[in-house]
Amino acid sequence: MRYRALDPKLIIETAERLEERVAERFPDAGLRGVAGELVSLSRDLAKAAKALEAPIWWLRGVIIAAVVAGALVFLFVGTVLPLDRISGPDDAVQSVQGIEASVNMIILAVLGFLALVRSEERIKRKKVFRELHGLRSLIHVIDMHQLTKDPATLSANFKPTAHSPARITNAPDLARYLDYCSEMLSITGKIAALFAQSVNDDVVVDGVNDIENLASNLSRKIWQKITLIENR
Q1: Euclidean distance between CA atoms 44 and 130, whole angstroms
Q2: Could you give the dihedral angle defined by the CA atoms of residues 112, 113, 114 and 120, in that order, rounded to the nearest 10 degrees?
Q3: Is the dihedral of CA 10, 15, 16, 17 positive or negative?
Q4: Percentage of residues of the chain with pLDDT beyond 70
Q5: 42 φ, ψ to 5°?
Q6: Are 174 and 149 in contact (CB under 8 A)?
Q7: Quick check: 219 and 186 in contact, CB under 8 A?
Q8: Per residue in 79-89, pLDDT tens?
């Protein structure tokens, strides 16, 4: 069972080790701050995902109270106010109308009950997407840091302009920098997967898959750069 579920603690530890590795090799780079933010976000989102596993007890109390109240209303209508008090015993039209109204009331009560039951899913779903929004933003920040890390700058024919950004001119360091970015993107996907593990909802799973696909696609571009560096 140990390897059948993601362990938030291990994900956080992996992010912390990655931050230490980035700090040791690139102490002055902005990527170090991004790695620190990834650690902080992984801690916050791990707590949020864990909290979503618990039922929303106050909402379930409201649902139970609504069911009890509805049952008491039907009991009141069916016993205290029998049909013969509402319409005459020979009035068939009013009796049919009364039965039709009762059926409509039952249908509305059932629909209302189903809406209350699914309200917990909607509340949790909204919380998940609020957390995933911050994770998606961090993914784009990571992508911005690798954007200017171009293997073409390692060429002897490369000539920077006056507005060219600071470049890493050492091939091993450039490859390691890009590898750190790829690892960060991989960790973001694992953090997102914690929500799919905590909330059993198809919409949440689709949202998590979108985050993972975004991180994987950006990581694929990074590895294309690493391949170019290795081929040199």
Answers
A1: 13
A2: 110
A3: positive
A4: 76
A5: -65, -35
A6: yes
A7: yes
A8: 655 545 445 55
Residue with tokens 């990655």: 18
Cβ–Cβ < 8 Å for 60, 19? no
Amino acid at 193: A
76 pLDDT exceeds 70? no
Residue type, 221: K
Structure token digits, residue 30: 């902005």
Q: C-alpha 46: how far from its chain's center?
A: 11
Structure tokens at 75: 């009991």
Q: Is 49 helix (H, G, I), strand (E, B) or coil?
A: helix
Structure tokens at 131: 């957390």
Whole-model pTM: value is 0.76
The tokens describing 9, both together, are 């603690």
41 and 133 Cβ atoms separated by less than 8 Å? no
Query: Which tokens hold the place of 51?
Result: 């909290």
The SS3 call for residue 224 is helix
Helix (H, G, I), strand (E, B) or coil at 200: coil
What is the band of 143 on the pLDDT scale with cuts at 50, 70, 90? very high
